[in-house]
Amino acid sequence: MEHLVQAIKERQAILFAGAGVSMTVGLPSWRTLVEHIAKELGVDLSEFAEGDINHLTLAEFYRIRQGSIGPLRSWMDRNWTIPEEALKASRVHELICRLEFPIIYTTNFDRNLESAFDLHGKDYVKIVNAKDVARVREGVPQIVKYHGDFDDDKSIVIAETDYLDRLSFESPLDIKFRSDALGKTILFIGYSMTDLNIRFLLHRLWKTWCGSGYERDRPPSYVFMLRHNPVEEAVLEQWGLRVLTEKDCPPDQALEVFLTKLSDAVEEKNAAA
Question: What top-level branch of life does the organism fall under (predicted)?
């Protein structure tokens, strides 16, 4: 992890945080959302074979039936808000604050990262849309809500159409990400690599570098995975991502162990400077 540690020390690393980060403090899985939508709309999930229906399609159906995603967003906001005590006790969120990434991208809608920054006395700028980019301040970390925020229904990427629209990779936040990512190391945590949207993003970033003619100059980027998976590792490494894991560590503890080691290594390097 030597290059990653150096990049964080020099504030040349971006953190990209997924649902696994929020699940460490008790947020429900996507399965809970699927079950809620099905119950509200009277959909019998037993009529569908495993894998035949997912939260994207159900959320699209919800929007068609209800006219908007607003009520679903309100339910998620109420049920995905974590008490301050849980966030204060979250070692993962503490470590994210301590590592002082200049930019954090997250696909999570919840406010847990922002609340953690508040609890630990850290300043930040939240970016949800193009207007927010003008609020960026030198030296102040950015929390970029890549798939939207509970405060803005229109920003939320949750239904199938939302995801398909983002595949153009041309929204203001996509353009910002390409600009931010081209010159910096990226660390992805809290993701299942079965997330098609994230896989597409990684592939597009790799293709951008390939097309530039300067692929060898690309800063290395990393994906932390809870379990060793040689198939995923081979594919991701083909796209220029180095896979990190914590061997012989239970999956529910792996992210905390990894971030602890990373934070300790950065602090050691800072002390030696």
Answer: Bacteria
